[in-house]
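Hey, can you fold this one?
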Amino acid sequence: MENRSIWALHGLTGYFIAVALLLGILAFLSTNAIQVQATTAQQSYEVKDPLGIKKFGPHLENEKHIVVHGEPVAGDTLHKYQFTK
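Sure. Predicted structure:
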């Protein structure tokens, strides 16, 4: 007969490993989110040529009208914002 106790050592060990892993992921994502928020809070932006912004057009096309005063945050390479220091 097998021991199928819910409180068996291998069951608790696996549970604690899973919980520790999830808490580690949560801590990593939370600290990165706080860092990105703190960095972007220091940035300002301006809209260049607002009458040239089109209502319909290619994806991310209107981003060339935005000038961000600061540096890209968290390795952002997707957006076409113009960054100034």
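Residues 9-41 form the longest helix (33 residues). Let me know if you want another pass with a different chain boundary.
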